[in-house]
């Protein structure tokens, strides 16, 4: 199904003013306005994301309390347990904190979640075990915000709990001695994932002469940020900008060798997300992230070959399971008459619990609407959901909570648990909610586009400026434009030329072939080897004339849908 193009509102007057103030092309200025950059100072920060631009980590909620408690634990030799989630964000955050605390002389050990046997978060069995141990401080990483009962149980046995997490708090959230979660305050940092928060904690602990030691963890902070699809704005953009080069050339032997094995050799977010992250996530999705834990550590150089082999084996097993599970999910969607479903809800007995997130993500991308995949076991379902930008899935789950045993997450990604007998009631209610929130437009697959331009306005100067928008990713997509009424000449199924009769540019991508037709195309412009090339992301047969208005040497119009 062809997506509907949603072209961002253009503001030629503001773009012209910003262009003069910042000394940039008006088209570049409009692209920056689309990303919320509105001032000359903001342009400078965006183009030069320096570590000095990071806010003081002490402005994060409860960071001062966390630093004080950790330092006291180190000084008194108190046993500390770090418990983290088993996805890449949780693992990178746990490794950062483990290495920093060990460097400070702490008596620290680390456990990672087994989502297959224990589900998400700190399991009750470990809470009981800790209450019988000598542990004095528990640090919950990438989990814990919505586990008030576990925190209360630990407190009743004299154990302090600290939480470093980025999940949105629900109505009754945990009350540990320190809750470092930017969603619990009104300050900065809401774009940070748990790895980013762990890096900021490292900076706070190493403040002063040792602060530069925190830079050793930029590779892991960038990796966790990209793996969690955190928006590349503000502090997250800075961490990825500085951490990408360190990531692909990491001094961590296991991570560096895994980058080499997967061909992740360029500081490119897309390479990291598509090649590296699936290998790192596979072990945790199958229940045992031990191999990845060792590969990420700086001092874990023994048996690297063994851990690499284990990680690759887990990835191969997961790929096979993923193909099978996705095929079964696709069959269900076909039977559900998906065109009438605002939220795709699929479930099956025996599905691998760790695959529900990837399956939901692929379905949401394929159909352009929210998707929830639920693994059933003994009449109890544990699932994950992925949404589309216009729909807050976590808020929807709050409105459907009477049919759920537990839920949590973010606007775009969530987890949930329910009883099988409530599945159909939940499906009906979440679809009703989405219909009320979105209207008929909620059934349309959409593609957001920055601008509409004539081919004559696509010039190398501003495209060169656009390269400075990198790193590209969630929250900062590669700028895209629509150009109308072009003729396409193909030289192969994926390469060719476009022309408006006066100008001709090289294109690549999946190109349509309709003899004699003119096309409207959505493209990503880039300079490849010094040549201006357009990558086609979508094409439609032109249905009418395009007459964009000219402003300050550029042309751009707002078209609500096309």
Present the secondary structure layout.
Layout: E1 4-7, H1 12-22, H2 26-34, H3 40-47, H4 63-76, E2 79-84, H5 88-103, E3 107-112, H6 115-118, H7 124-131, E4 137-141, H8 148-156, E5 160-164, E6 178-180, H9 194-205, H10 218-227, H11 234-248, H12 253-262, H13 269-285, H14 290-296, H15 304-335, E7 344-349, H16 356-367, E8 371-377, E9 380-386, H17 393-399, E10 406-409, E11 413-419, H18 423-438, E12 446-449, E13 451-452, H19 460-466, E14 481-492, E15 495-499, E16 504-509, E17 519-528, E18 531-541, E19 550-551, E20 554-555
Parallel strand pairs: 1-12, 2-3, 2-4, 4-5, 5-6, 7-8, 13-14, 16-18
Antiparallel strand pairs: 8-9, 9-11, 10-11, 14-15, 14-17, 15-16, 17-18, 19-20
Describe the model.
The two termini are 14 Å apart. The protein is built from 19 helices and 20 strands. With 562 residues, it is of the alpha/beta class. Helices cover 40% and strands 20% of the residues. Helix 5 (88-103) runs parallel beside helix 9 (194-205), helix 12 (253-262) packs across helix 15 and helix 13 crosses helix 15 (304-335).
